[in-house]
Amino acid sequence: MATEGDKKMITLKSSDGEEFEVEEAVAMESQTIRHMIEDDCADNGIPLPNVNSKILSKVIEYCNKHVHAAAAASKAGSDDAGAAAANSTAASGEDLKNWDADFVKVDQATLFDLILAANYLNIKGLLDLTCQTVADMIKGKTPEEIRKTFNIKNDFTPEEEEEIRRENQWAFE
What is the pTM of this model? Predict the structure, then answer.
């Protein structure tokens, strides 16, 4: 059994066969992986057929950062320094927000793959972050601008488009 200083490690296997050794606490950020661990299905590594190594390494980076930030915040919160601990916790929360903002500054394909991985692995924080990033990319744009942003071909005729606008007039008011 792992002692106090040792961290239990879990092996995650990406769809392209690469293996990643991660701390159990980090792996358990994923509810999907948490259930596999709880059901004793993690002894020979956990295969993740829907996540390639490039995306899995990004997911692990995200989970690592959030687990260690939460551990640091709870440690700071349990100190007797009171106001100083509250200030450092607020500062670390701000640091984490900035880190998250930088984390999602990736190309669209990577962002969409991160959304799929976060959904498959059931990592709510990562799913919320990545989906909010896409929502922010859409916010305030016209349909034409959205099509350009996401490289979507307009397959409506002008007549069909006008009919849709009439049917959904409430959305344009």
Answer: 0.81
Residue 121 has pLDDT above 70, yes or no: yes
Whether 118 is in a domain gets the answer yes
For residues 79-96, give the mean pLDDT: 62
**CA dist 26 → 45, 154, 171 (Å):** 15, 42, 43
In a domain, 170, yes or no: no
The backbone region for 17, taken as left when phi is positive above 0, alpha when psi lies in -120 to 50, beta otherwise, is left
CATH of residue 38's domain is: 3.30.710.10
Per-residue pLDDT, 6: 64
Give me the residue label for tokens 């490289």.
151
Task: State yes or no: pLDDT of 3 exceeds 70.
Answer: no
Confidence of residue 1 (pLDDT cuts 50, 70, 90): very low
Q: Specify if 43 maps to a domain.
A: yes
Of 97, 98, 114, nearest in space to 106 by CA: 114
Structural domain total, the chain: 1
Task: Look up the domain containing 49 and give its range.
Answer: 9-139
Task: Kindly state whether residue 63 falls inside one of the protein's structural domains.
Answer: yes
